[in-house]
Amino acid sequence: MTEEQYSEQLPQQTENHLETLFQPKLAGFWVRFWAYTIDLIVIASIGGLVFKPIFRVFDIPVTNPSFLFFSTYKVTMLIVLLLYFLLMTKYLQQTVGKMILGIKVVKQTDTPFTWSDLVFREVIGRFISKLLVVPYLLVAFTTKKEALHDIFADTYVVHESVYEKKVDFEYLKNSEAHQLQGEAEI
Tens of pLDDT along 136-174? Predict the structure, then answer.
């Protein structure tokens, strides 16, 4: 084998080896909380700089509820919020808050996002989570650090360039098997 052939094979073997040893680190509750807070600030800024002036120009009330307890402005801002999360996640896999904190949304199957995945995650799941608030707290208590909208769409939120070692209990299985065989012989 020539040196060139050896050097061409080495990175491929190393990459495959690293993929089996490491996995992306899951983003926990607090980093996701701060990313979401940053996103809410961005959305409030968009509302204050773009939509409130438009509502004022057309003399549409911003605070008076017109249907149930929702004003036209609140409904508009809810649509902006849902579109913000939907489009940013579809095209960039992250929102501004996630970009600042270095986290992104990935599918469990490593396939590209489909619109139905994102509608379930960012529109239906986030709408339910926004109404109830409690589904966001699931991140702190689930082993895979998933919120309700992650569970709906089979997604994870991971750190962009941070990996952690996979926990592999294969050696325990083998040692237990040997120990049981040893006890059976005695």
Answer: 888 888 888 998 888 888 899 999 988 888 765 555 555
The CA distance from 102 to 80, in Å, is: 23
- The three-state secondary structure class of 69 is coil
Q: How far apart are CA 156 and CA 133, in angstroms?
A: 19
User: Hunting for tokens 């052939």 — which residue is that?
Assistant: 5
Give me the amino acid identity at 129.
Answer: S
Rounded distance between C-alpha atoms, residue 37 and residue 48, angstroms = 16
Which segment, 65-74, 94-103, 174-183, is predicted with the most confidence on average? 94-103
Reading the block at residue 175, the tokens are 């040692």
183 pLDDT above the threshold of 80: no
> In whole angstroms, what is the distance from residue 89 CA to residue 94 CA?
5
DSSP tag of 68: T
Rounded mean pLDDT, 93-99: 96
Residue from 104, 83, 77 nearest 162 by CA: 104
pTM of the model: 0.74
List the beta strands (DSSP E) in the chain.
22-26, 103-107, 155-165
Direct distance between the N- and C-terminal alpha carbons of the chain, in angstroms, rounded to an integer: 51
Whole-angstrom CA distances from 44 to 48, 50, 54, 73, 178 are 6, 10, 15, 12, 61
